[in-house]
Amino acid sequence: MLIFLDETFRELDRGGEKHKFGAMCGVAIPIGDYTKIANAIYKLKLQHLGKDYADNSELKGKDLLSRYSFKQHEMRPEGSTNIKLIESILKFLKKSKITVFGCVCFDQAMQSFSCKDTGVLDATFKSLCERINIYMKREHYGRKAIIIIDNRDDGTNGRNAAAITNFLVKSAPGSQMRSSILEIPMFAISQAKNIGIQIADIVTTIIGLRVAEFSPIMPLYSQLEDCFYSWKDNSGIIHNTLRWIGGPVKKQHSGVRKQTSSGVTRISYPPRKRV
């Protein structure tokens, strides 16, 4: 199983009070299905934006999901090719039963998704590993996930790789995950042919805009929710594959908020049921 992850760094403006956050999100694609999925996404790019775009351009959330794209869509929904392409991709992900993972972090010490100490894995990456581990053991027992992260700078890549490997190899919690997660994460350069990273970029952008409370994104986010994987813990609490760490919570939200012994506030949001 290939787990493609990308990151975004944004800001939530809640009543004039600004809250910075980072999000690392992505998708799980079975190795055997990768070429089929890549070809299908290429055809969607070709259908909506033409051959030159399909051959030479990446799916970029910042462009396809820009404010201008939404303004075009509001004024002329049928002629808004960018949003129509995203809608088609989300329908395809749901139809193909692609699972979405993610971690949203408001904690200033960890929201950059850059491990400073290679001997201690940040809670952000731990939460992703925990969810990948649960998903693999419940749905793909006996198989391993390969984590592939969008390339950053060499220093960040090196520290994150070492921290993830040390966690999986040397820690007691990590050792319980080695049967379902490859100990060595990989890093990939985003380019026109790397469909996995491109899909991760789109997913991450949608989730980032949702967390930033950009209202036009909600119809697309609602579609993406169908790709979250959910389960119940021993206490009967529902969790899913998108984890929030810290951040302001609206009073009317039904999320479960819990502070851990380390002081990190974690929020589990009830998922939409898969159909």
Folded structure, characterized:
The chain is an alpha/beta fold. Helices cover 41% and strands 21% of the residues. The chain is built from ten helices and ten strands. The chain has helices at 34-49, 51-56, 61-64, 67-75, 81-95, 123-139, 154-170, 172-175, 195-211, 218-225; strands spanning 2-14, 17-29, 99-105, 146-150, 186-188, 230-232, 238-240, 242-245, 256-259, 265-268. The strands form two sheets. An eight-stranded mixed sheet has the order 5-4-1-2-3-8-10-9. Strands 6-7 form a two-stranded antiparallel ribbon. A hairpin with a 2-residue loop joins strand 1 (2-14) and strand 2 (17-29). Helix 1 packs antiparallel against helix 5 (81-95) and helix 9 crosses helix 10 (218-225). The radius of gyration is 18 Å and the shape is globular. Mean pLDDT is 88; it is low at 251-275.
Sum this structure up briefly:
The protein has helices spanning 34-49, 51-56, 61-64, 67-75, 81-95, 123-139, 154-170, 172-175, 195-211, 218-225; strands spanning 2-14, 17-29, 99-105, 146-150, 186-188, 230-232, 238-240, 242-245, 256-259, 265-268. The chain is of the alpha/beta class.
Question: Strands, helices and their partners?
Answer:
Layout: E1 2-14, E2 17-29, H1 34-49, H2 51-56, H3 61-64, H4 67-75, H5 81-95, E3 99-105, H6 123-139, E4 146-150, H7 154-170, H8 172-175, E5 186-188, H9 195-211, H10 218-225, E6 230-232, E7 238-240, E8 242-245, E9 256-259, E10 265-268
Parallel strand pairs: 1-4, 3-8, 4-5
Antiparallel strand pairs: 1-2, 2-3, 6-7, 8-10, 9-10
Helix pairs in contact: 1-5, 9-10
